[in-house]
Design a protein that fits this description.
Layout lengths: L2 E5 L4 E8 L2 E9 L1 H4 L7 H23 L8 E7 L3 H18 L3 E5 H6 L14 E6 L4 E8 L2 E7 L5 H11 L6 H10 L24 H15 L8 H30 L3 E5 L6 H11 L6 E3 L10 H13 L17
Parallel strand pairs: 1-4, 4-5, 6-9, 9-10
Antiparallel strand pairs: 1-2, 2-3, 6-7, 7-8
Length: 339
């Protein structure tokens, strides 16, 4: 099948053309540059940019695939979770195209799509069952996945998502937005490389839940105390050391919980998806732990499919369609959609 995928859950406008797990095109337009000065995504700005650019992004996706709308067999679109105004833009286009072209329509859960983005790799794909870890600015959760439509929540953050913690720590250190890339870059320059500076929240010996508000607060207090000695601002090398310590502690918790979940469920594959999956240090930690885990292996999506994209929506949409899932013209945005 040729599937037209549409993703507008946050600040990326994306349209793709996929055939099964093969990506023919994946066009993305981001409004992140407009949110930088606010330190986070402004829903109104994101929604307006989706409306302004979605037709252009659709044209780019079709041109890149060498296909036309008449070639499509299915329309798949993100219907949640996400920003309600942003979601409605993609859903409105999807329903219009499905109605005009007489095509079936499938609504896709954005979080589930991140879990299955690793299947878009050219080689080395995971197998069911596996433990899935979603790590992004809005979500941090572990799932036990038996099939594309069979997954169970094992644990999730009880406060901040890990990506949100990165953004807040970057704001504390005046590094800008988004926090993930700037903290990762600064951490590479650390000389001390002290990973004991900030606590790791375990939430209990066998708990699969997460908490990142504590480490964020620990960074805040540490910075406030240290700034007293440096009224003109923290030295660059000290900022790098703080970034390294924070990143190591935060990422270690993700790795520890994921491997604990895999051990508890008796599976050999862990799949990591979401924006934080683009963090190279996180990938290093998972691959290092895999060497000493008794055969448990970690799978990541390609970097371009770690961030929000329509290719993962189109590919999962086709899988769900083949399982019998259908949406109708009453499909609407569900900003708090759960699995």
């Amino acid at each position: 099948m040729l599937t037209l995928g549409i993703e507008t859950s946050c600040d990326e406008t994306s349209v793709s053309v996929t055939r099964g797990r093969s990506v023919l095109s994946n066009a993305v337009s981001s409004s992140v540059h407009l949110h930088k000065k606010y330190g986070g995504v402004v829903p109104e700005i994101a929604s307006r940019l989706h409306v302004e650019y979605i037709v252009e992004v659709l044209s780019r996706a079709l041109e890149g695939s060498g296909k036309s709308l008449k070639d499509m067999d299915l329309v798949a679109v993100t219907n949640g979770p996400g920003l309600v105004g942003a979601l409605l833009t993609g859903i409105s286009m999807a329903k219009s195209l499905a109605y005009e072209l007489g095509l079936p329509l499938v609504g896709v859960n954005h979080i589930l799509a991140h879990l299955y983005s690793a299947f878009l790799n050219d080689k080395d794909k995971p197998e069911f069952p596996f433990v899935g870890l979603v790590v992004s600015g809005g979500h941090t959760a572990l799932f036990y996945c038996e099939d594309v439509d069979k997954q169970r929540l094992l644990g999730q953050t009880q406060d901040d998502a890990v990506g949100e913690a990165f953004d807040k720590v970057a704001k504390i250190l005046k590094l800008g937005y988004p926090g993930g890339p700037v903290i990762e870059l600064a951490a590479r320059s650390s000389v001390k490389k002290d990973n004991r500076l900030f606590p790791k929240s375990s939430m209990g010996k066998d708990s699969l839940d997460f908490s990142f508000s504590g480490i964020k607060t620990a960074v805040l207090y540490y910075v406030h105390q240290t700034e007293k000695r440096y009224p003109e601002g923290l030295p660059t090398e000290m900022v790098s050391d703080i970034c390294y310590a924070f990143q190591e502690s935060a990422l270690d918790v993700l790795v520890d919980k994921a491997f604990l979940a895999a051990s508890m469920k008796g599976v050999k594959h862990i799949v990591i998806g979401g924006g934080v999956a683009a963090n190279t240090r996180l990938r290093e930690k998972f691959h290092e732990r895999s060497k000493f885990s008794g055969g448990i292996k970690a799978f990541f999506p390609k970097f371009e499919y770690s961030m929000d994209n329509a290719a993962m929506i189109g590919s999962l949409g086709e899988e769900l369609y083949k399982k019998g899932y259908r949406s109708d013209m009453y499909l609407t945005a569900e900003p708090n959609l759960e699995i």
